[in-house]
Amino acid sequence: MSETRRAISRRKFGKASLFGATLSAVTAAPQQPAGEGLSAAENAEVEARYNNAIRQYGERLSDEQRQRIRRILTTNERMMSHIREFPLDNGDTPATVLKLEGGK
Amino acid sequence: MLAEDILYLPISELGRHLRRKSFSPVELAQSYLDRSQKVGPKLNAYVTITSDLALDQARAAEKEMAAGHYRGPLHGIPYALKDLVAVKGYRTTWGAKPYADQTFDYNATIVEKLNAAGAVLIGKAAMIELAGGLGYSNGFAALTGPARNPWNTECWTCGSSSGSGAIVAAGLAPWAIGSDTRGSIICPTSWCGISGMRPSFGRVSRHGAMAIAWTMDKLGPMARTADDCGLILSVIAGPDAKDHDSQFAGPFHYPAPELEPKPLRIGKLTNVWGRLPAEMETAVNAALATMEKAGARVSDAEMPEGPYEDAAELTILMEAASAFQALIRSGNCAKLDDPLGQINGYASDQFSVTDYLQVQRVRTFLQQKVDKLFDSFDVLATAGQQSVAQRLTPGPRPQPNQQKAPVQPRPAANRNAQTKPPDGVSSLCGLPALAVPCGFNAEGLPMAIQFIARAGNDHAVIAAARTFQGLTDWHKKHPQI
Prior knowledge:
The complex is a heterodimer of chains A (104) and B (481). With 104 residues, chain A is an all-alpha fold. Chain A has helices at residues 3-28, 40-57, 63-85. Chain A is flat, with a radius of gyration of 19 Å. The two termini of chain A are 32 Å apart. With 481 residues, chain B is α/β, with parallel strands linked by helices. Chain B has 16 helices and 13 strands. In chain B, strands 1-3-2-6-8-7-12-13-11-9-10 form an 11-stranded mixed beta sheet, with helices on both faces. In chain B, strands 4-5 form a two-stranded antiparallel ribbon. In chain B, β9 (265-269), α9 (278-293) and β10 (297-301) form a beta-alpha-beta unit. In chain B, α3 runs antiparallel to α4 (51-66), α8 packs antiparallel against α16 (458-471) and α10 packs across α13 (353-373). Chain B is globular, with a radius of gyration of 21 Å. Chain A binds chain B through residues 1, 6, 9-10, 13-14, 17-18, 21, 49, 52-53, 56-57, 60-61, 65, 68-69, 72-73, 76, 79-80, 82-86, 88, 92-96, 99, 104, and chain B through 215, 241, 244, 304-307, 310-311, 313-314, 317, 331, 334, 339-340, 342-344, 346-351, 355, 357-365, 367-369, 411-413, 415-416.
C-alpha cells in the first residue's frame, strides 16, 4: 500500500468518524433505549441478533440473562460500528492467511 | 530448605550455584516445593503441585550434572506452568469447572522443549477460567479461588496468568510460563512486581495449549529479570509444524549477537491510558530519565489513530466463540463460575462471517500503521498498567479504560487511542512487550514500565528492560511472606 494511499485513508477515516458520529446522533435519537449512539439499522441488527440468540438458546436463559445478552449485543454492535466506519477498498485483504502445507 | 534469598535469585545465578555445586537440583526443587506447599494455598496460586514429577526431573538433572553434562541455562531450574498447557498424565483444567478433570495423553510442544532443556516442573499454576476466553467479571472467576497478590493478599494478582504472577512474586518458583491474548502476562507481571514478556506472535508454539483466539494467543515467560526472560525465550521459541501460526524459521538466540553500540531510541507514549495516578506517572518518567542519562534517546510518541481496541476485542470474541463452540452449544458454559462467562458465548455466536472478515481487513491496515512507528523508535514505553493491584471484590472488574479522573476531550479522529491501554494495539498486531517493576506506590504496591517493539524484534524489548534493570534494583525487591 502506498504512502499516499495511507495518508488519504487516514484523513478519510477522520471525516468518516465525524460523519458517522453525526449520523448516529440523528438517527438514533428516537431509539435511545435500545442502543444509544447506534443508527436505526444498527438497532435493527441488534434486535435481529437478539431474537436469533433467544431462538437458539432462550430456553436456557433467565429474564436477567436475556437482558444482559441484549446489552452485550448492543456493545458488540457499537464496536462493529467503529470497524465499519473505517474506510476500506475492495483490494484490502484480511489478516487471515492460507498457509500452504508444501509437503510438510 | 534453602534460604529465602536463594529462592529469589534469577535463573542465571541459580544455574551458577548448581554448576558450582553450592546446592543440588534436588535441594533446590525440594525447597521450592516446600515453600509452594506452605504458601501456595494462601495465595490460591496452584491448581496442582507436581511433586513427584519435579523430584524425578531434579534427580535426573542431578545425575547428569554429576557426570559433567549440562544441558543449558534451565537445566535443573524449577518452574511453574499455567494450567492451560498440557502435561501428559496430569490434570489440565483450563481453570474451569467443565474441564476440572481433563487430562491429555501428550505433552505440549513447550513442555517437550522444557523437558529437553532439563527444567523441573514444580506445578500447574492457577488461572482465570478459560483465561477469560468467554469473559469474566473479577478475580473470583477461577477454579481454585481468587489468586492473591503476595504484596498484599487483599489484592488481586490480575489475570489471566494469575497463579503464574503469584508464584514468581512469592518465590514459590523462580519463573513461570504464562499466556497472553490481550494483556494476560503484562498485567499480572505489573501488579506482582516481576518481569514478564509477551513474545512476538508466532515466536513460541502453542501446540497443546488451550486456544482462545488463534490469531492473538501467545505463551511467554514470567520471571525475576528481563535477562531471565531472554534465557527462557531462547529455550521455548522456535518453529513448530504442529502450530499453524508458527512464524519464525529459526531459533531465538540469546544473548543476541553483539551489534555496533548505538543509542536506544525510546518513544514515550503520550496518548494511551488517559490520566495515570501521579505516583505512577512519576515512576515511569523517572525510569525513562534514568535510561536517558545512560545514553538512551527519549522522545514523545503517539499511537496512530484507529479502532484497535474494538478490533482486538472483537477478534477475541469471535475466535473464542469458535474455539469454545462445543462448550457454548452444549450449554456447559452454564457451569462456568462467572455470570458473564455463562452467557457471553451466546451473544458472540451471533457475529457473521462478514463481521469477522471486516475486522481482519481493518486489522491489516492497523498493523501497517503501527509498524511504521518503529521506523523512528526501537521501543515504545509506557506504564505496565493504569493502576497498581486492585482489591479483590466480587463485583465487576474495573475496565482498563474506565477513568476515575476526568479526561480532557481530544479530536474525534484520535478517540480510540486517547484513553485506551496499549494492550489492544500491541496484542492485535502481534508485537512483543516486556514489563518490569519501576517503583512502589505509597501503599507498597509495585508499579511497572513496559516496553513494546516491532513485531519480530523481541531482542529490543529485552535489551531495553535489561538496560533499565542494570541501572536500578526495583526487580530485586520482594514481598514479605
